[in-house]
Amino acid sequence: MIAQYHPTFIIMIPTMYYSTLRASNFNPENFKAMDYIIQGGSQPLPSIQAAFKQYGINIINGYGLTEAPLVLVNTPENSKRKPMSIGKAVMFVDARILDDNGEEVPTGEIGELAIKAKNVTPGYWNKPAETAKAFHGRYLLTGDLAKMDDDGDIFIIDRKKELIITGGENVLPSEVENALAEHPLVDRCVVVGYDHPKYGESIAAAIILREDEPHYAEILDQHMRSRLAGYKVPRMYVPVTHMPLNSTQKPDKLAIRQMMNDKVSQTL
């Protein structure tokens, strides 16, 4: 369709870009002709950014929610310097990074992204409790962990509810996923926490391998231990032929977590 209709602008979620790269008829020239190629709807993936960059294609990150459509977006020039940034707040939008007490965190520290703007929903219909929980004053609490640099550029780190707490230590799934994706054996990966009787949660990775390798677990474990603290290293690496997706075509982390819990229960 791109070759037929020659669009000048496209916006897709990371899963769609991933599928596009692996399509048999993928032609990077079709993308080079576009003015704007935007990625949104989910956390930016470094592997996708890098894959398109090797073709000379620059993907721009944007950010929005159902409750607050397109409130941050990077610029073409800035995205070349900071490819993982979702940019700055657009006009008439106030974006802040807050701690659990609703106070702004220092520059460079991780907190929850909060948005105030005219296009932010006033609340959820007939759900006052949910509405109260979703707001801090007039700021919508997005549920996304983020940080802001000295220039005011914002970087999404992870979903707050997906934080893994193992043995009292906080682990960001995205940090583990990014380290895992650096290995050439890994085509795609999703990291989740699963129930553990001693640590509360432990870490597992669902992976799509680029090639058959009987010793993949040992190889990946060695790779991860050279990059991350021991408590952040997955205890399980589970190969899958396809990644479970939800209705919005994002990795279904609930299904993947259940898959890991089922696998553990089968070994007991």
Automatic annotation (TrEMBL):
Organism domain of life: Bacteria
Keywords: Ligase
A GO term, aspect molecular function: long-chain fatty acid-CoA ligase activity
Its EC number(s): 6.2.1.3
CDD domains: AFD_class_I
The keyword ATP-binding belongs to this UniProt entry's keyword annotation: no
Occurrences of domain AMP-dependent synthetase/ligase (ranges): 1-125
SUPFAM superfamilies with a match to the protein in the record: Acetyl-CoA synthetase-like
The organism of origin for this protein: Staphylococcus aureus
Pfam families to which the protein is assigned, alphabetical: AMP-binding (PF00501), AMP-binding_C (PF13193)
Residues of the AMP-binding enzyme C-terminal domain: 175-250
Name of the protein in question: Long-chain-fatty-acid--CoA ligase
Designated gene of the protein: fadD
